[in-house]
Predict the 3D structure of the following.
Amino acid sequence: MSLEDFIEGPDIEKDEAVEKAVSFDALYEVINNIGVVVEESQKKYTPEELIKIIERVRHGNMSPQDVARAFGLRLKVEELLETDPIFKKYTQGSRGKKS
């Protein structure tokens, strides 16, 4: 099954595509293919906004709690941060700057 098969399907398949991402680059590809993400609060995020937030988290300028929960994005970001050299470099092993 290709990435496009996941992205064009129902939300559960988008969840699976996010879950299968093994790197931030792969996650960014999934986010770009999903398009606009709408949270339960009805807040909308473009792919560019989501990626910018994730990059700020990786550099210790935002908390992982600032990442949207939709499609398991926040959980995936937290998982990827555990082994991310950029995050470790900028946060020296802490969980990032708290908001």
Notes: Helices lie at 3-8, 11-20, 24-34, 47-58, 73-81, 85-91. The CA atoms of residues 24 and 80 lie 7 Å apart. Residues 3-90 form one domain. The two ends are 39 Å apart (CA to CA).
